Amino acid sequence: MSDKALTSDELLTALVTAMTALREVEGDMNLSKAQTLLHVYLQPGIAQMDVPTVVDTSNPAATRNVQDWALLNRKSQPGRGFIRQVQDPENRKRYLLSPTSKGQDFLRKMTARVNEALSKRA
Fold it and tell me: Fewer Cβ atoms within 10 Å of its own Cβ: the N or the C terminal residue of the chain?
């Protein structure tokens, strides 16, 4: 990673490019749902109970967001498959979250798009 800080234009280009990629997954995606995926990617193994705090949302909203990204959604139908929920072996009431290979692939592609958009501005 470069030691050079992004300019405001570069930061905005990166944000718009990333938001566009997320909106291609779900056209009306809200910010907390996007943040949920990004936090799970940045903190693999995060406890689901910690998501409301790091995303600054309610418990029900955080649960919905996780389930929408998970292998199975809240209606026990196939979800997006970007997040894996695993019961914590040390505490059966907790679920640990990590990105699936599909989620990691999506985030790698989103990062590549951001880098490409930034390189075009250079």
Answer: N
Mean pLDDT of the chain: 91
Q: Considering only CA atoms, which of 118, 117, 54, 47 is closest in space to residue 89?
A: 47
> Could you give the C-alpha distances from 6 to 2, 14, 15, 54, 84, in angstroms and in order?
9, 10, 12, 24, 33
Tokens 């905005």 belong to 12
> For residue 99, what are the β-bridge partners?
83
Tokens for 85, please give them. 């929920």
Q: Quick one: CATH architecture of 30-113? A: Orthogonal Bundle (1.10)
What's the predicted TM-score (pTM) here?
A: 0.86
